[in-house]
Design goal:
Elements lengths: L18 H11 L2 H7 L25 E2 L6 E3 L4 H14 L2 E5 L5 H16 L2 H5 L10 E4 L14 E8 L14 H25 L6 H4 L5 E9 L9 E6 L5 E6 L5 E5 L2 E4 L7 E5 L1 H6 L9 E4 L6 E10 L7 E2 L17 E2 H11 L5 H4 L4
Parallel strand pairs: 1-10, 2-3
Antiparallel strand pairs: 3-11, 4-5, 5-6, 6-13, 7-12, 8-11, 8-13, 9-10, 9-12, 14-15
Length: 368
């Protein structure tokens, strides 16, 4: 079964619609969302149409406020003030942007350019990387939760993981971004150490506390490409979700589209030249016993230009034997009992993967 170019999904009847067949056809083509755009579609396939949901507010919703600003933190300032700003942002927003982080701007430019080159290269070359084998260290596909989500998102993704206990071989990466990704990953991992020190202090702990727990032990780099969409109001670049990580560091190009849910309002997180977006993940909300917030966020589709982002997920222990994580003993008392159960990262991520991008429902499953 093919996904017809130019077909208007609204004209199909329920009996005509074979969702499983369309998903399979899209996946087996191995060309991703960009393949649909390159084929000249005018109406997006039905698998991308987002269903009405109380958790997914429409673009024109009154619950979108342009005047809300994600906090911006200058890491070149006074240390005590930086810790206070990190604490405040982590407790109230769960998101902040950082500047003066020590990563040269040309490293950002090289990474964005490299990701773009990979996704825009000859489709036959790109197909060689297409897989849903989660055991592969480098994977390219469209929608990790394609067969489980209520609606596919308008994006393609190249992912690779590395851990502190292993030497990552750059030759495993596609040539289009090999050098840029190697340099970028090295810089972001160093920044991760700095951020975890600040977050430890913001929790009233010693600077090395979270690092000692191996919160930065493994990093997964997720390189998203969001093609321009002919019908952006009918789909999403990324559905509302929170992150299965301790911490996420996001590099975004100039296009924009990221929104953060703050006090029941969607707030834009516009690109700032030279800045990185940082957000608290579900695992750190658990460790902080709800002191720090992992909040829902989403990405809007657009019809103006392709959008490129690189998210680095810090996902914990890289040891052969998994660690169990839970609310930190130092933060627990009779007045502040544990809100969550202990968890293994593999257990948590397994539940997240099964549900796909669907708000913070996974976090709720680990409450006491």
């Amino acid at each position: 079964m093919d996904i017809s170019v130019g077909r208007n999904p609204s004209s199909e009847t329920v009996s005509d619609y074979d969702r499983a067949g369309e998903l399979q056809a899209f996946d087996e083509a191995k060309t991703g969302v960009k393949g649909l755009v390159d084929a000249g579609i005018e109406n997006i396939p039905r698998i991308f149409l987002r269903p009405p949901s109380p958790n997914e507010l429409v673009h024109e919703s009154n619950n979108h406020q342009n005047d809300l600003q994600v906090p911006l933190i200058d890491l070149g300032g006074k240390h005590e003030e930086i810790v206070d700003q990190v604490r405040s942002a982590s407790e109230t927003w769960g998101f902040f942007q950082v500047v003066n982080h020590g990563i040269p701007f040309n490293v950002f430019e090289g990474m964005i350019e490299g990701v773009g080159k990979f996704h825009e290269q000859d489709v036959e070359v790109k197909k060689e990387w297409y897989t849903r084998d989660v055991k592969r260290k480098v994977t390219f596909n469209s929608n990790f939760d394609l067969y489980r989500s209520k609606a596919a998102n308008w994006r393609d993704t190249l992912s690779f993981s590395m851990s502190a206990s292993e030497n990552f071989d750059p030759q495993l990466l596609p040539a289009a971004l090999r050098d840029a990704a190697t340099e970028y990953a090295e810089n972001v991992r160093k920044l991760g150490d700095t951020l975890f020190e600040l977050l430890s202090e913001a929790l009233g702990l010693k600077p090395d506390h979270l690092k000692a727990l191996e919160c930065a032990g493994k990093c997964t780099f997720v390189c998203h490409y969001y093609p321009a969409c002919p019908q952006p109001k009918l789909t999403m670049g990324a559905s509302s979700h929170s992150d299965p990580s301790f911490l996420t560091v996001l590099l975004q190009d100039h296009v924009g589209g990221l929104q953060v849910l703050h006090e029941n309002q969607w707030a834009d997180a516009p690109p700032i030249p030279g800045a990185l977006v940082v957000n608290i993940g579900d695992y750190l909300q658990i460790l902080s016993n709800d002191k720090f917030k992992s909040v829902d966020h989403r990405v809007l589709a657009n019809n103006v230009a392709p959008r490129v982002t690189v998210a680095c997920f810090f996902t914990g222990s890289s040891s052969v034997h998994e660690k169990s994580y839970g609310p930190l003993e130092e933060l627990i008392s009779e007045e502040n009992p544990p809100v969550y159960k202990n968890f293994m990262v593999s257990e948590y991520f397994g539940k997240f993967s099964y549900k796909g991008l669907d708000g913070k429902t996974t976090l709720d499953q680990f409450k006491q």
